[in-house]
Amino acid sequence: MVIDTHAHVFLTSLKSVSDARYVPDYDASLAMYLDQLDSNGVEKGVLVQPSFLGTDNSYLIECLRNSDRLRGIVVVDPVIEIERLKEFDEYSVVGVRQNLIGKQIPEFQSLVWQNHLDALETLGWQLEFQRNITDLPPILEALKGYNFNIVIDHLGRPNKENVPGSSAVDEIVNIAKRKNNLWFKVSGWYRAHVDENHFEFYASLFEYLLDKLGPDCFVWGSDWPHTNFEHEINYKKSVEFINRLIKDDHLKERILFDNPKRLFKF
């Protein structure tokens, strides 16, 4: 079986936040997503709250309520009460996402954030980040006292500076070796800030991390519907990508099923 750990659902009728970097002009509904899963032989999926919808997770929760094949990652304000998070937990939400592209790194030492992080630890939720690899080491160091899982989206959205063996990449490797709670989503290779050879660059970084850390901290995500890249990528190409990247069937089973089953509580 295959589990897709990163996809978004939304409707044009939903209100976007005022400072959204990008707002799609089409629907990506639950029915459309489930059809993609069925058409591509994928058993289960993880819905990640899209950034342009902010902290209004209502449609994501509605989707979770209407399908037992899914888990959810929400976007919340850190001031949220744990009782509200417990309500989300009942609907198969398993974590929180921080999209930090173009934003300041949160003050994790503040009382608000410490309370929020304690709540995540109590619930056994994960904390997911979208940020370039270069900026991740100080974030991970600030969270080193916590035992919840930390997930890095899109392999850290690498750029030309993040080659295998670079200082930032090796800092990530060293942090991951010290703790067993750091995970990487093998997804969104087309979001790497390099030239047209996205696949080759991404593959070299993935293979380096795999060699240094072993296979148990990687999961795959389609990144459907590939916002901002809709005219270049589709679900089938995302499946072709992972099949091209990982040819060993045993390794593929671990990354596409065994690991996400454990990480996302399926």
Automatic annotation (TrEMBL):
Task: Indicate yes or no for the key word Hydrolase.
Answer: yes
Q: What GO molecular-function term can you cite, just one?
A: hydrolase activity
Domain annotation Amidohydrolase-related: ranges: 3-266
From the record, what ranges are coiled-coil? none
**One of this protein's Pfam families, by short name?**
Amidohydro_2
* UniProt entry tagged with the keyword Cytoplasm: no
Q: Cite the InterPro entries for this sequence.
A: Amidohydro-rel, Aro_Compnd_Degr_Hydrolases, Metal_Hydrolase
Keyword vocabulary terms for this entry: Hydrolase
Please name the PANTHER family in this protein's record: BARREL METAL-DEPENDENT HYDROLASE, PUTATIVE (AFU_ORTHOLOGUE AFUA_1G16240)-RELATED
What protein am I looking at?
Putative 2-pyrone-4,6-dicarboxylic acid hydrolase
Per the UniProt entry, what species is this protein from, by scientific name?
Taylorella asinigenitalis (strain MCE3)
